[in-house]
Amino acid sequence: MTGPRPTGTEFALVAAVVSGFAVFTNGLAIQRFDDATVYTTAKNLIAGAVVLAALVVHRRTAMGPDAGLPPGAVPRLAVVAVVGGAVPFVLFFEGLARATSTNAAFIHKTLVIWVALGAWAVLRERVTAMHVGAIALLVAGQTIVTGRPPTSGGTGELMILGATLLWALEVLVVKRLLPTVPAHAAAAARMAGGAVLLVVWLGVRGGLSELVTLAPRQWAWLLLTGSTLSIFVLTWYTALSLAPAVDVTSILVLGAVITGLLNTGFRGVPLTIDSTGYVLLAAGAAAIVWTGRNRPLATLSA
Questions:
Q1: Greatest Cα-to-Cα distance within the chain, rounded to the nearest angstrom
Q2: Which of 144, 229, 232, 293: disulfide with 277, CB 3.0–4.6 Å?
């Protein structure tokens, strides 16, 4: 006898936990690499391979070996690869090299605002007063945890903002795709297709030699972070296929709490200064979960 199927909210909570762990491990791993773009390219190559393997298994079991994509899906999947798995990664890490980490963290965490606006305007999702209040709590918590809003708008900050806006666009495109394209296929396009484009960019930069000469210890870190990224994308896209984009993206912010707890437990980073921010983040995510569980089924379709 089987139990009830997991909901989009539950998948989003899992994705938030994985995201929090991923941020923590990426912070440790990237210190072992001289070039952030080489690191993210190698990491995304591994994630792409894992997601492709998951897609093959999914096709042979749940979908059947003869299942194909609907007409017109390939161009839209190519857009996902560009705006989700390639260009924003380059912009973010190149911007990170030029901006302060505080500014970068704050700008990236505004993703929930852009997705909420896009979900309301483009997807016609219902954004209630509870959503607005929950997002306000999330933004307030992010401000406390990551520091004050950026005080400068240099090239680095603009590149990170561009990456964040592209990731918001990705959510809207994927949300429109998922009713007809399986989450596994969309995730494979994002990670495998994006990784190929990152390799091309690395070749243009002349960094391919660094990619093929990585040390075994570096590859061990890449296996950890790449596998984690693949799990995140699969659970995130599955959540988007089952729940409104604004709910899923809001719950993902809860990952900051997970990262903070891991930093405290394993690196001794105190939570005393940012404890209020973590409480606000948890409260905002809890409000979104409550809203999602009590939302009428008729409002769940985009």
A1: 58
A2: 144
CB atoms under 10 Å from CB of 299, counted, come to: 11
- Contacts of residue 125, Cβ cutoff 8 Å, sequence gap at least 6: 119, 244, 245, 246, 299, 302
Each residue's pLDDT tens digit, 186-233? 999 999 999 999 999 999 988 899 998 999 999 999 999 999 999 999
Distances (CA, A) of 101 to 107, 146, 252: 10, 9, 20
Which residue type, as a one-letter code, is found at position 125? E
What are the tokens at 176? 């429109």
227, 47 contact by CB (below 8 A): yes
Asked whether 9 and 293 are in contact (CB, 8 A), the reply is yes
How many other CB atoms are there within 10 angstroms of residue 269's CB atom? 14
Q: What is the pLDDT of residues 32-89, one digit of tens each?
A: 898 888 999 999 999 999 999 998 887 777 655 445 677 788 899 999 999 999 999 8
List of residues 6+ apart from 280 with CB closer than 8 A: 137, 138, 140, 141, 144
Q: pTM score, two decimals?
A: 0.85
Query: What is the distance between the alpha carbons of residues 240 and 80, in angstroms, rounded to a whole number?
Result: 14
